[in-house]
Amino acid sequence: MIDALQFEFMRNALWAGLLASIACGVIGSLVVVNRIVFLSGAVAHAAYGGLGLASFMGWPVLPCTVGFSLAASGAMAAVTARDMRRADTVIGVMWAGGMALGIILLDFTPGYNVDLMSFLFGSILAVPTPDLWLMAGLDVLIVGTALYFYKDFEVMSYDAEFAAVRGVPVRVLHFVLLGMIGASVVMVIRVVGLILVIALLSIPPGMVMGRAPSLLSMMWRSALLSTAFCVAGLMLAYHFDLTTGAAIIAVAVVAYVACGAVSRVRTHIGRTRG
């Protein structure tokens, strides 16, 4: 693995994994605590429409996909903020509609040369330096927003009704959170792909939840776990010639299962001794 770092694409891959992990730690924790994992999945799949639009118009892929994802997030936030009972319907419509739009626009693009597999399963080994700067800027925006609204997010995440009674702008924060999800999922798509984006957003926070003393602690612990998964997945992919995104998620899944097994064993031993 050390030998591989002489190549720029491998160094860029490590940076991309680190930058995406920061977003995963912050946004993933908010997503898991607020129980909107599948809503984030809808945002991710709707972002596929941005890929199709970028190819059709000849625009840069990452900025266009970010913009489209933010627009989709705003639309979903507007509908679900009025009536959360309609959330499932909105998730289904946006999930399928974004994918369909992206595919249709790609069909209308003459001689398009977009590698669809890289967006479905990730292209962390092909992240150019300009995209790293954009990812870093998005991280600064996401982390800054999360810290600025931290107290409000914390109250809203655990009891939205109580937060509203206390004067917390729950509706505004709902829009802000969906926008942050829209920005972060595009980064995660670059690392593990559209199909696996939900796993990297939910597995690290899922392992930490219940063990972290606060939401902030949950965020940075999740970011560290996500970074470890990315590095380990890159090592596996490099040594065994595997698809990088799938290798990263495989490491995360194995770690999640092992963590759950250890917790059950400890609980069983504690009950036996008690």
TrEMBL record:
Q: Which residues cross the membrane?
A: 12-37, 57-79, 91-112, 132-150, 162-181, 187-208, 220-240, 246-265
Question: Which SUPFAM superfamilies does the entry mention?
Answer: ABC transporter involved in vitamin B12 uptake, BtuC (SSF81345)
Q: What is its main location?
A: membrane
One Pfam assignment? ABC-3
One annotated Gene Ontology cellular component of this protein: ATP-binding cassette (ABC) transporter complex
Name the keywords, alphabetized. Membrane, Transmembrane, Transmembrane helix, Transport
**In what way does this protein cross or attach to the membrane?**
Multi-pass membrane protein
Looking up Gene3D superfamilies in the UniProt record yields: ABC transporter involved in vitamin B12 uptake, BtuC
Q: Which GO terms describe its biological process?
A: response to zinc ion; transmembrane transport
Do the record's keywords include Transmembrane helix? yes
Please state where this protein is localized: Cell membrane; Membrane
The UniProt similarity line reads: Belongs to the ABC-3 integral membrane protein family.
Protein's name in the database: Zinc transport system permease protein
